[in-house]
User: What shape does this take?
Amino acid sequence: MRTLRPIGAVALAALFFFPVYVVVTGMLKPVKDIQSSPLGLPTPPTTANLDAVLGREDGLYWSALLNSVQITVLSVVALTLLSAMLAHYLVRSTARWTRPALLMLLAGLMIPPAVILQPITQVLGAAGLMNSVIGVVCANVAYYLPFGVFVFAGFIGGVPVEMEEAASIDGASRFRLFWQVVFPTLRPAAASVMIFLGVWVWNDFLTPLIVLGPESGTTVTVGVYRSVGEYSTDFGTLYAFSFLASLPVLLFFVALQKQFVAGLTAGAVK
Amino acid sequence: MRRSNSQSAREFAGFALPGLFLYGLLVLVPIGWTVVLGFTDRNRFAAATHWVGLEQFQRLFGDDQFWLVLKNTFVVTAIVVVVPNVLGLAIALLLDRNTLLYRLLRSLFFTPVILSGIVVSVIWQSMLRPGGVLNRFFGAVGWLSDPGIALYSISGILCWQMLGFCVVVYLAGLNGVPRELYEAAIVDGAGWWRRFGSVTWPMIASAVTINTVMLLISGFKVYEHILVLTNGGPGRNTTASIAFDVIEKGVRGDRIGFAAAEATVMLAIIVALSGVVLQVLRRREVHL
Assistant: This one.
């Protein structure tokens, strides 16, 4: 039993991880080797596939990367600030409407994007924000706001209100009070909101596909989808594009792994 | 703390309004708009839009394809709710050791969770195509081209992607079970299954809730996997989900009114489903 457990665990993990192995080794092989020996190690490894993606004539990867970075950074920053402020207002306010407002926001956690996407394009179109990075950011902020409020509201509920009252007696304005006293205490919640939304927004497909449209370039996720048709069975290049599209989010995850798992599991242990 | 009216109005404008405004404009208004459009004959290429009452809903419910798409969605959702939940708990129990090896294995299981659905679909498409790796072991199986198999292939791929999420949530749940409870159970002579049933299972109730709700939402809204792997086929709608159908008809296609009626039905189902599931699971948590 004592040796069986690690052997079983490693074997299961290896089986599970096999597709990732196929991609990472396949990306370093010439196409004919992917066909003839998909399981073998790349000997010697070639960077031809990666070079092909990075050095495309139209610069698709680089322009998509720029869009993805802009959309993710702007969405996550805006979401963190707006959802922290809104959650704080709703939790601390004594007004009667804040309770139903909170519930209505939480209901938004379950809405599939497909249900609201068509009208969203109309609203953004009327505001002149279709085919723009800002349009995607606005749609993201609205759609993911319930998640941010959910995490912050849970956290703020556990912070004693006395600290804020003590500071407000000193005559600090509510805004200064929030940014100087309250927000720093919300840092753990802010970390998990930023990590989660960073990964989700980066990986989003449908919203950038429709809102950004073909005219204004793509994000990396949409870029991978477009290249599926273009490269068809050239899996070496497809693997390389997939890998390069996922690399930033993988590095982000490795760097923040501890907080990520802590955030993911905060609700699982009560 | 008494505040003047103008002060509290300023606070509302500063703290609550920006978020509520965007949420209202780009979530609530679109929900209402979708419901309203479902009662019209709106078409992208028609100049005028007319109120048609329940006509789109009658057309929808009389359409075999709608029931097929709905059935597909329920099949995928059922598989995605059950399989990663059960396997995730089993693997979490297996990996519930705090050494370097087990921490490393956790990361391997978690990797697909942070990949996009598009990338995951590209990976699996390359492995499941006729000349792909998997058919070297299993002979010529039409993973994505056999109408009787393709839907299950897509469900399996979703399970693969979601499994790591369940593993990590269950590991955290297991981590929160007080060791004394196990020790007491061992002293009382309880075997492994007894300890699992009487200690572990009730103590990880909130982890079960989180995973079930998360899987339910992910399964029900499945879209991009279908787009990349089968585009709804083989044949007509054998793997199309309701989200896929709504997008194809209303957002990328021209039948906006019809798709809005379908989206309204989708909305009603997800609201009812999440309500029921939350009720059931929460009750179990309370009964501890």
In short: Chain A touches chain B through 88 residues (CB under 8 Å). Chain A has two domains: 4-46, 58-265. The mean pLDDT of chain A is 86.
